């Protein structure tokens, strides 16, 4: 009987993975930032998405980061964003919204809450207390099951 339950659990898990994630990012995507269950490779073309953020902020400031399409028709259904310390290439800080995941620390990644088409998303990022240095944001952006981009990179943010 235990074997049957294990097989049922495996089938349910595989079906959920194959169906994609319409409202969350699984923790197994934390390191690679690659969406599981899409069955295709990421697009190699220039991503039609951009970050908008300040160039410089004071330490301990909340930072507003906007991810949007480059043009008015460039919408997306899913996203996964992390911030990286440029000096160490390590993930850094935490997000407040819209939905977060604990990858490299509490709320160290931000992601979509649903698969509704979006023109943009506004995120609030918090640097570590008294951090001085530069940070770059990186995203995976999903337009559709067949079309997504990894390595969407922001301009550098200087804290200090």
Quick gist of this model?
The protein is mainly beta and 160 residues long. The protein is 11% helix and 36% strand.
How does this model look, in words?
This protein is mainly beta and 160 residues long. The chain has one domain: Reeler domain (Immunoglobulin-like). It is built from one helix and eleven strands, in the order αβββββββββββ. It has one helix spanning 2-19; strands at residues 49-52, 56-57, 63-69, 78-85, 94-97, 99-101, 109-111, 120-126, 133-142, 148-153, 157-159. The strands form two sheets. Strands 2, 4, 6, 7, 9, 10 and 11 form a seven-stranded mixed β-sheet that branches. The chain has a four-stranded antiparallel β-sheet with strand order 1-3-8-5, with no helix packed on it. Strand 9 (133-142) and strand 10 (148-153) form a beta hairpin. The relative contact order is 0.25.
Helix content: 10-25%
Identify low-pLDDT runs. 1-21
Q: Using the 3D structure, state the CATH architecture.
A: Sandwich
**CATH class, please?**
Mainly Beta
CATH superfamily: Reeler domain
The share of residues in extended strands comes to: 35-45%
Query: How many helical stretches?
Result: 1
Q: Helix and strand layout, with pairings?
A:
Blueprint: H1 2-19, E1 49-52, E2 56-57, E3 63-69, E4 78-85, E5 94-97, E6 99-101, E7 109-111, E8 120-126, E9 133-142, E10 148-153, E11 157-159
Parallel strand pairs: 2-11
Antiparallel strand pairs: 1-3, 3-8, 4-7, 4-9, 5-8, 6-7, 9-10, 9-11
